[in-house]
Amino acid sequence: MHFLNGLIEYYIFLHENSIIFVENYLVIRMEKTITGFSKFSKEEKIDWVVSTFFDDADSARKTLGQYLNSNQIIQDVHDDFIENTISNFYLPYGVAPNFVINGKEYTIPMVIEESSVVAAASLVAKFWSTRGGFKATVLSTTKIGQVHFMYEGGVHELKAYFEEAKDQLIEVTDAITKNMRKRGGGILDIELRDKTAELANYYQLHITFETKNSMGANFINSCLEAIAATFRNDSIQIVMSILSNYVPECLVRAEVSCPIDRLHKENAKQFAQKFQQAVQIANIEPHRAVTHNKGIMNGIDAVVIATGNDFRAIESGAHAYAAKSGKYKSLSQCEVKDGIFKFWIEIPLALGTVGGLTALHPLAKLSLEMLQNPSASELMEIIAVAGLAQNFAALRALTTTGIQQGHMKMHLSNIIKQLDATEEEKNYLLNYFANKQVSHSAVVAAYQKMKE
Ligand code: HMG
Known about the structure:
single chain, 452 residues, alpha+beta, 3-hydroxy-3-methylglutaryl-coenzyme A Reductase, Chain A, domain 2, Alpha-Beta Plaits, 4-stranded antiparallel β-sheet, 14 strands, binds 3-hydroxy-3-methylglutaryl-coenzyme A
């Protein structure tokens, strides 16, 4: 068979029960593709995957099965979150106690696979709890959605059409916004933006929202689609309507400060200076800024996931904010002035404490209860603090002992596990390395020596 798809010429052959696509000289044997997979039962899906992709199908089936939840109610909940589930990918759920934020005590739940993050958060929480704790303030809570459209006519006519339609554009969302308005939220404004200098004929309706305790993605997108349907006409061609995960006006600030001499037992002044230099370096050097901000996201993502929020939205928004000046920079800042050390972060965080996974995932619900059922604004404060704490821990380690000492101390049990050590051997190695530098090769050497 022969067909043309755009400019690419295809030949299709049936060969030994498999389809071969020939595109120019590229031959792709379609032996591992399938139609109708979504309609299979879970068992059929597992059968197909293990028999198609694994040499040892039984072993693959066993591993997938081990992570399926024996509690059918929990498994049903997971199966509803996404499509084509064949197992679960568990992440550890830890807690970091002793946080004091705006005078209130918290134990913060963290979901993360990386060792030393929870320990570092716990260490720093305790450290600052005796130095006034963390202070956090929500600076703004505005979310954004956009209707992107093309229009070839005159800009004055478009502006006149928009001004005339504006009230109606808000009215058509009345049914969607009714409950949100009762809670004090809804559409804040609709603005027409001319983007034709950057892309021919391109305009936007830039719409701002207040979504109170919900993250608001579905609410915003429903409003946008209703607005777009009303706004379109023969000369306005809607390209798409979607919320923006860049929310520079949904901003929170978290801060710690104390007299310099309370920072460190010895050399407090030198500690403060090196710490500040580390932040300054992250401000001017993008290679360092990315790693610096990754350390912040260790704390942020872990709590975002634990509370059932969308970490991809938070990540992309945070990094866009870090690059808002046109250069990628540190999300945190440090000042050492008049004998006071001050360290703070400003970060956009669009979060929800109602709706989405927060209501569906039993552990997300439990996390929120552990955090004393915060409003979305309080959760913004808590999560910004988790990011700042993590950043403080990393910079404290980096500018003093180096990161590896603490990180490897926490990573020790992972290395031991890879060696298949017995419980007795594990305890011996943990004791042996209690006061020694940990490295992968040192642990392997100690293990081998112990076995001799
Ligand atoms: P330490 O001083 O050796 O800990 O620090 P310790 O054994 O003396 O214990 C003190 C406290 O630390 C404990 O108090 C706990 O709060 C916590 P206690 O509970 O005893 O009252 N702690 C623990 N909590 C739970 N489980 C544990 C545990 N151990 C201590 N097993 C520590 C050890 C790892 C905390 C420290 O060295 C540290 O903070 N290191 C930094 C670790 C870090 O930042 N990890 C992030 C991963 S590295 C990375 O990805 C980011 C990076 O690239 C970012 C950047 O470059 O900026 C670094």
